Amino acid sequence: PLHPGGDDPVPPGPFDTREH
């Protein structure tokens, strides 16, 4: 889920990568 854009298909959890 750590990829450019932050469009990870996983729901926000302990590792909310969408903040990047």
UniProtKB/TrEMBL annotation:
Biased composition (Pro residues): 1-14
Protein's name according to its UniProt entry: Membrane protein insertion efficiency factor YidD
Region (Disordered): 1-20
Organism: Escherichia coli
